[in-house]
Amino acid sequence: MKHITYRNFKESTRHLFRIYAMIPFSILIVLFLAFTIVNGRMNLTQKTTEAAQSISQTISGVYRQYEEEIQRMAASPTVIHYVSSHLGSEQVYSEFYDFNNRQKVKSIFHIVNTDGVFLASSAPPDVLYSNFAFGNLIHRIDQRPGDTLTEMNSFRYSHDRDTSYTFGQAIVKDNETIGYIIYQLYEADMQKVIFKQNNEIAMITDEHNTIIATTSNVTKGGLNKFSPKLDGSGHVLLNEGKYYMYAKRIPGTPIQVVTLNSYKSEQYTYFTVSLFVLAAGLLLWVLIEFLANKMSARNSESIDKLIHALEQLREGNFNGYVDIQTNDEFQILGNEYNVMLDRLKELIEKNKELSELRTIIEVKQLQSQFHPHFIFNVLETLRYAIKIDANQAQEIVLILSRLLRYSIGPDRSVQLKNDMNYVRDYLKLQQIRFNDRLEYRVNVAEETLDVYVPKLLLQPIIENAIKYGYENQSKVLIEINIYTSTGKLLLEVRDNGQGMSAQRLQEVNHILQSQTNTTQHIGLYNVHRRLVLLYGEESGIQIDSAEGRGTCVALTIPYEWSGYHV
């Protein structure tokens, strides 16, 4: 049999504590990073949107004020009188400057007659006399004398003062156009209005995506158009950078506000968060190591005593009692172990006294081989379960206590229903050990419950099915069927394991038929030998198995004998 090296309980406790302490921390880190990413994106989106909303509100106010003012001035009797008579220029200029001084976005003011002569202007108009673009502007105003013309155009005046947006309207008297009034808004003032401290780039464009004003020239494309490149996620690519963009059209106007913010600010946030997570992780790891050592040292003392006692029992020392005074499940387990040890010693003494009864002695010896191995497996399971789930560990201890009480009882035969209660407890412990990798079904005919059978008859069969069922697969199904047929009591244990080859099945049958067993495979042999000794050669074990379809072990007992104590 291959020797298995087990990790000691102290190290296992320390290892499990590390794992289960790091799991919630890892989840917390993932959630924290996810929150940081989502929050960063939300902040970027929010500040971009808020900037666009704020700029939109301001620009909308500017647009409405100029639209209302140019309509008022075009219809003003003072302006009409001035264009007609060239008198009263002081009042016209006074009204313009009074309005212009109140505005966030200042403008240049012109009044031009139908011959193209500048009658009034707040800036030297010399550069405009021969300007073809300005002539076209006058022509477009003349085409729609009842409407206000608004459009993006750029004119340069002295001292490098540029205008970027124009409001124009015809001056009409007696249904006849007598002149034109024009307001040209300064580009620098427009830039000041759209600048927001928490926003990187802002611009305003007309309905043709022509840039009226912008806080960064990287947005300007050919013909002063804003034509950004987009990646697959819809992000704007500018100057080798990736930007989030929000566009808002101002209702009732041809103007659109566009705001952009770079994703580079998020990268700095991620870097800062990563440094924080690293520092917190190192600090937490030191704390976990300290607590793991403290906990493992405290919890391993009781289990170490039990393991040491079992090792002494394996060596044949029946005086290795366990002294555990912890007032918990380990103390109960230690007391039950001591009781079991006393019962084992009593059984040995009885076997010595009944040495002449060879058959009974052999049956008791075969039966006694089960207990130490079974208890050792359960304790190994308990070692790994005790840190994972305290409630489950308590359940294991209580089930094991019932099994120990049952197994150390003096009866050699018991009613089948009692032995099946033991089997269910045994399977429950194994299921706790293997979780959802083990499934079992128990079907017992009603008429068989009160019959007597040898105690612990099915445990080695079930243990064998579990042991070999997991070879080359991760899940095992154990099915137990008990019924009567032609005067015999049949107990079947089926599994869905890999099964045995024909050669292996022949070897196992040969072992079962031998009078002595010199191999290490004693489980099936002991059960078969007990049945033969108690009920004769017609009883025993039959095995049906084939590769790939599992194994069925059937135990046969004469039904008329099984109703009595044996």
In spatial order, strands of the major sheet run 7-6-11-10-9-8
Q: Give a count of the beta strands, DSSP E runs of length 2 or more.
A: 18
Dominant shape: rod-shaped
Low-confidence stretches: 354-370
Instruction: Count every helix, treating DSSP H or I runs of 4 or more residues as helices.
Output: 14
Strand composition percent? 15-25%
Radius of gyration: 48 Å
Structural class: alpha+beta
Describe the oligomeric state of these chains in a short phrase: single chain
Helical fraction equals 40-55%
Subcellular location: Cell membrane
Domain Histidine kinase: 457-561
Catalytic activity: ATP + protein L-histidine = ADP + protein N-phospho-L-histidine
Transmembrane segments: 20-38, 268-288
Summarize this structure as a short list of keywords or feature phrases.
single chain, 566 residues, alpha+beta, HATPase_C_sf, kinase activity, cell membrane, histidine kinase
Set out the fold topology.
Elements: H1 9-75, H2 77-85, H3 89-100, E1 107-113, E2 118-121, H4 132-143, E3 149-157, E4 161-173, E5 176-186, H5 187-194, E6 201-205, E7 211-214, E8 229-230, E9 236-238, E10 241-249, E11 256-262, H6 264-314, H7 329-353, H8 358-368, H9 370-388, H10 390-407, E12 413-415, H11 416-434, E13 438-444, E14 452-454, H12 459-469, E15 476-485, E16 488-495, H13 502-513, H14 523-535, E17 540-545, E18 551-558
How would you concisely characterize the structure shown here?
The chain has 566 residues and is an alpha+beta fold. It contains 14 helices and 18 strands.
